[in-house]
Amino acid sequence: xxxxxxxxxxxxxxxxxxxxxxxDDDKLRKYDKTNVHSILQYCLLKVDELxxxxxxxxKIRVNTPIDKKALIENYKRKTRYQRVIRVxxxxxxxxxxxxxxxxxxPDEIHGVPTPxxxxxxxxxxxxxxxxxxxxxxxxxxILLQVTIKHPSWDDxxxxxxxxxxxxxxxxxxxxxxxxxxxxxxxxxRSVKNIQSHTW
Length: 199
Prior knowledge:
By secondary structure, the protein is of the alpha/beta class.
């Protein structure tokens, strides 16, 4: 119901912040010092015309918690279960969460399971997306992702940027198709090179 309109609005919002000099390729590369995550959250939030209320940093309580020991490599901490999941943006309609959006900057490009690294070392965006897709059955999910560079993490260098994009696309496609959810995946390589995919 919403996904095509959301794609148009979010892309328009990205263009708007770029025109206001809040986003350019240099800022994308220096994402950790230039508020890129917050700026892209804004791009996800401004969807009022669809009758949706976008709320940032929204906490969602789930009936079945995330089992960190099952997901994280060599997990040894005391707190095994995570019952509250915070999303970058939740979309509410008449007080009900109908969708959510996540912003992934380059520091989390390796936050999706792959053949070379099937288990990660932290609860990553992919874990949250997959768990919420199963638990709350939203109408839609948006992933807004910056893939302009590799971060310094060794695990991030296991694949090229193109390969990471394919891993994320495959993950989003499978998650959404398996759970019968509409999904929008926006990839930002540069302000002039933005791809979007829907399922």
